[in-house]
Amino acid sequence: MEQDLISKKELLELTGISYGQLYRWKRKKLIPEEWFIRKSTFTGQETFFPRELILARIDKIKNMKDDLSLDELADMFSPAPTDVSLGKQELLKRNIVSKMALDVFTEQFGDTPVFPFAHILAVFILEKLLQKGVISLDEGKTLLGTLIQHYGKFEGKNCDLIFVRKMGVSAFLLVSSPSDVYFEESAKIVERVSIADVIEALKWKLS
Fold first, then answer.
1. Which residues does 196 contact at the CB level (< 8 Å), separation at least 6?
2. Handedness of CA 80, 83, 89, 94 (dihedral sign)
3. E-strand spans in the chain?
4. Tens of pLDDT along 29-75?
5. Topology of 5-77 in CATH?
6. FRET label pair with 25: which of 35, 165, 185, 192, CA 20 to 30 Å apart?
7. Across all residues in the chain, what is the average pLDDT?
8. What pLDDT sits at residue 3?
9. pLDDT per residue over 90-105, tens digit each?
């Protein structure tokens, strides 16, 4: 399906921001480079953006820039992990994850007194998929194994988690984002999760 795009001109008119603000936010890494899409039109080269993503991001920036500096906002929006570690009780107390999700992690990896950010992220993603009802507890163990083993290989770059099921057999993949992934017809993509979006949500809960 073709991506729904918005032109730069329409974006500036719709949001009321200036050309200078847009490119300042780009330089500050509040808006990812890959969202600036150059396309040929009958008037020449024009810049377009993924409509839903850019409108949501600009709305967040406008609402929060009075409370946080642009550098602090850039850190929140960045897919890079943050230097945070929390214990089990703190994770439960702050309602970041449930006891069920933590129990799945403990069963898979043993009792851990302190969770670094990458492990918090893995359990946070598990929690989201359990709440949506798209994953079983056994599949949750496989999910955790995939994230713990492979997430660090992306070194803070954007990636997506893809959950596929074929004839009752499930599999998890981590792929660079943005990227197109195609499967045989009998394989169904149950869920595709933007890790960058989850990291952003998790950073807000941890802040």
1. 79, 158, 159, 177
2. negative
3. 5-7, 37-41, 44-50, 85-87, 114-116, 159-166, 169-176, 188-194
4. 899 888 999 988 887 889 999 998 899 999 999 998 888 898 888 88
5. Multidrug-efflux Transporter Regulator; Chain: A; Domain 2 (1.10.1660)
6. 192
7. 90
8. 66
9. 999 999 999 999 999 9
